[in-house]
Amino acid sequence: MFSLPNKVTIIEVGPRDGLQNEKNEVSTEVKLAYIEKLQQAGIEEMELTSFVSPKWVPQMKDANVIVTQVKKMGRQIVLTPNKKGVELATQSGAQNFAVFVGVSNSFNKKNINKTTKESMDELMPIVEKLLQEGHFVRACISTAFYCPYEGKIDPSDTLALCKEFVSWGVNELSVADTIGMANPQESYELFKMLKNEFPATLITAHFHDTRKMGIANILASLQAGIDRFDTSTGGLGGCPFAPGATGNVATEDVVNMLHQMGIRTNINLDSLLKAVEVIEPFVSRPIDTGMYSLFKSK
Q1: pLDDT of residue 133
Q2: CA neighbours within 13 Å on the CB side: how many for 75?
Q3: How do 151-152 and 146-147 pair as beta strands?
Q4: What is the pLDDT of residue 291?
Q5: C-alpha 29: how far from its chain's center?
Q6: Are 95 and 64 in contact (CB under 8 A)?
Q7: Helical H runs in the chain?
Q8: What is the predicted pLDDT for the residue at 2?
Q9: Cβ–Cβ < 8 Å for 193, 160
């Protein structure tokens, strides 16, 4: 087997990416209880919420309350699509920011009504200002493998977008298989290329589990040298602007695999499953991920 890392960092995206597409309105109190359970399980990095228009993503209308009331612990990231989002997040006391752009122009237009270039032109001064002020900035690269409108993405296009973000000095690239169509060979090849190109930048892999290849893609990425992964408890998730995208690969399944392989995460699996228990009654889609199903059947 390829050389594998001794430790992996899990970035829990359930409170943001996991809930953004949820049909049921989840109360602020439930979200805070969910986040607290995730913290108790040992999650050190987490996407808390997003500062987007409630008109488009009503689930995130309580972003300000979440940021101000959550227990401060580890790196807590908020998604900010534009200057207004950054301003609102800053007023709430947020310190760590995520911005996002799709490699695919079609996806970008559907998502935020801008081409990829228009988005980058708008984001550059915003990101530069955040970095100058000492904030942590992660750049989320959507549709890095496939687009629901354009099909397969040329890896050179993904590389070019990542290169532009790195030239600005972003701290992290979160590279996403937004609609869950990538296979392990594609995952290995893209992440190996990115690791070689950007050795000084944090690189995180973000997989959706549409074709049940999320775990296999994570193993391939591990073999390519990736040691950071976005995952969502309960396999929750999806994108309002990406038809066909299902949930993210489940945190509990990834942690279980890593622990079985002798790779540390500093996450307590039993406690993690308790976090899934907290959120399950309030979401519309049944949670039936492997480890959680075993947990419930005991």
Answers
A1: 97
A2: 16
A3: antiparallel
A4: 87
A5: 22
A6: no
A7: 28-40, 63-69, 83-91, 105-112, 116-132, 155-168, 184-197, 214-223, 251-260, 269-279, 290-297
A8: 67
A9: no
The angle formed by the CA atoms of residues 83, 208 and 189, to the nearest 5 degrees, is 95
The confidence score (pLDDT) of residue 1 equals: 55
By the 8 A CB rule, do 276 and 233 touch?
A: yes
Q: Is 140 a catalytic residue?
A: no
Residue 209 tokens read as: 């589990």
Among residues 211, 215, 226, the alpha carbon closest in space to that of 254 is found at 215
What distance in Å separates the CA atoms of residue 210 and residue 183, rounded to the nearest whole number? 11
* Residue positions counted in the chain: 298
> Could you read off the pLDDT of 4-46 as tens digits, one per residue?
999 999 999 999 999 988 889 999 999 999 999 999 999 999 9
Average confidence (pLDDT) over 150-171 = 98
- Cα–Cα separations (whole angstroms), residue 82 to 26, 131, 217: 25, 15, 31
DSSP character at residue 287: -
Active-site residue, from 140, 147, 162, 239: 239
Between residues 2 and 104, the one the model is more confident about: 104
The DSSP symbol for 212 reads: S
Nearest to 171 by CA among 92, 65, 96: 96
The pTM (predicted TM-score) of the whole model is 0.95
Return all residues near 167 (Cβ < 8 A) that are at least 6 apart.
none
Place of tokens 């399944």: 253
Question: What mean pLDDT is predicted for residues 279-297?
Answer: 86
User: Which residue in this structure is represented by tokens 């079985």?
Assistant: 260
**Maximum separation of any 2 CA atoms in the chain, in Å:** 53
